[in-house]
Amino acid sequence: MKQQNKKILGFSRNVFFVGLTSFFTDISTEMVYPLIPIFLTTVLGAPVAIVGLVEGIAESTASLLKVISGWLSDRTQRRKRLTVLGYGLAAIAKPLLALSFVWWQVLIARFVDRFGKGVRTSPRDALIADSTSSEDYGKAFGFHRGMDTLGAAFGPLIAFAALPLLHNNFRLYFSFAIIPAVIGVVVLALFVKEKVRAAKVENLRLSLKPFNRQFKLFLLIVLIFTVGNSSDAFLILRANNVGVAVGLIPLVYFVFNTVYALASTPIGALSDRIGRKVVIIAGYLIFAIVYLGFALVKSPFTIWLLFAAYGLYYAFTEGIFKAFTADLVPENLRGTAYGFLSLVLGIALLPASLIAGFLWDKISPSAPFFFGSAVSLIALVLFMALIPNDNRNNADA
């Protein structure tokens, strides 16, 4: 128990090592993710609509699994084993891309990768909350998102350096992505110590009934917002469409991830001081402006600025959503709550990506971004109107 209470760089031992695991895992993931839309459309010859289908199915599958794994972690009162399993599956998925010669094989590889994400995410987030005092939720989740995203920043940088050396051999390059993923699994298995908890809860049902009204309203607003927030693969395609060279795409993504990583911890700490609502409102507003920018952009230079601003949007929302959820729900329901949050995101993401692909193909490459900007403003108004100003310590309300 004393070991669990030790702090490293001001964070609990578990928060630090879970962050380190996410750092290595996201190096692996982002080594390949920015290249998948290009791989599908240029190497395999798939239409843009297939990119939306692949990403929508992959991410929706992950989100559906997150609610089940979160519920299981609450029911068994064990977070770590599911987290290790999920990261292990993500490592296995990386070489599968190297074996893909048609688009549906890429879908399988993405499915396995996101299956692993679905298994690990809710138990991991509950583990972070369990290892953190309530006044530091924003800081802890901000640190985790920052470490995760720092890894994501290095991934595209590796792609930028390695692909030319491999003569743009995508399949050979994809094979190497398993190495940092395996390191992440080892760190998690050896150094994260789970809090000793009560015996498993046999009668815990997978239901929204135990949660308060504020959490349910929050889920509804997130659902509406996500209908306009399609896969980030469309941002990558838009960058290429405007004139950013394929070889520079990993660097553009590096800019996004660097801004996100550097901003996450201070913005998370800011939400601990001023409340989550104002920070989330700012995040939604940034998203609306950035998506409008992607709709109107004409210059490759502007794409770099938009990706940097998009990193700020992530810093203002991703970790803050999880800290906000911890504010609203009791400890024994955290895994399930994070699962429902992810489920809502997944339910909306598939139609969001399909809508974006349809709008791109049938109207114009600008159309998905006009749509997303408009929907985010609707969500912003609802959030301002329906969510009280300070929900901290309100889990039992």
Automatic annotation (TrEMBL):
Alphabetical keyword list: Membrane, Transmembrane, Transmembrane helix
GO terms for cellular component: plasma membrane
Domain Major facilitator superfamily (MFS) profile: 14-391
GO molecular function: transmembrane transporter activity
TM regions (residue ranges): 7-25, 31-54, 84-104, 172-192, 217-236, 242-262, 274-297, 303-325, 337-360, 366-387
Subcellular location: Cell membrane
Protein's name in the database: MFS transporter
UniProt membrane topology term: Multi-pass membrane protein
Principal subcellular localisation of the protein: membrane
Coiled-coil residue spans: none
Taxonomic lineage: Bacteria, Bacillati, Actinomycetota, Candidatus Aquicultoria, Candidatus Aquicultorales
CDD domains noted in UniProt: MFS_MJ1317_like
PANTHER family: C-METHYLTRANSFERASE, MAJOR FACILITATOR SUPERFAMILY TRANSPORTER
Record Pfam families: MFS_1
